Amino acid sequence: MDTESLIEQVASAHRERSVDGDVKYARGWHDLNEADRVKAFDVAAQNRELEAALDAEGLSSTARAVLARLGR
Amino acid sequence: MSQEIRDSLLLAIQSGDANAFGRWMAEAEPRIRASLRSFASQVDTEAVLQETLLRIWQVAPRVEVDTRGDALLRMGVRIGRNLAIDHVRARQAQPEADVDVSTLEQQACDSAEPDPLLRQMIADCIGELPGKPAQAFHARLYGAGAEPDETLAVRLGMKLNTFLKNFGRARAFLIECLGGRGVELSCITGERV
Asked: Distance between CA atoms of B171 and B174, rounded to whole angstroms?
């Protein structure tokens, strides 16, 4: 997978959970260099901003994922 | 949403009201995310942020409203910072620089109340997306972080790499479209990515 796609993958709000419930790193994160990890951060911020703007309650996918963990 | 309203939500959150926590997160998440940017090269900030929000929910019953206001948000920024430092240490690296929490809070962008006009503008731009990028964007949007991209891609009959390319094209198109309507995103970095 090329760097551009890895950045897109890391910028997703989806994160797997470990058996003890910890939030695991995105699969592609370790394959990015430091500069591209920062790019992924900025892309994620834009994604979350778009998601929140489109949500009637102003919630991003991050917030939705967290609420799902709470059993809302 | 004012600091007073965020503080008033704390009481509901402390009583176990997840909807109130959702309202609080709508305001607090961008601020806490911004506070983690200096760690982005060394930790997966999305993972740290989600862990931070879960811990905030757990510790909220012990937080007291104080005269400075936004006690839960200030605690959240500290939890996030400490978690990020723990992750850095666990990876046997060192943080690039010590972090001043008060400065980070000032750097965070102002999150906005849900804005029907902005939502409509984005929806209009989404309506102009080409087919495959539109499919990828909708899949992520409706998935709300619950499913991995691999699953979303299979559902759309795309290879993972194709799905990710299409999603990237969709975001770039939307930012361009919104820019043409006078809307700039990326309040955290102050620049387009």
From this structure: 5
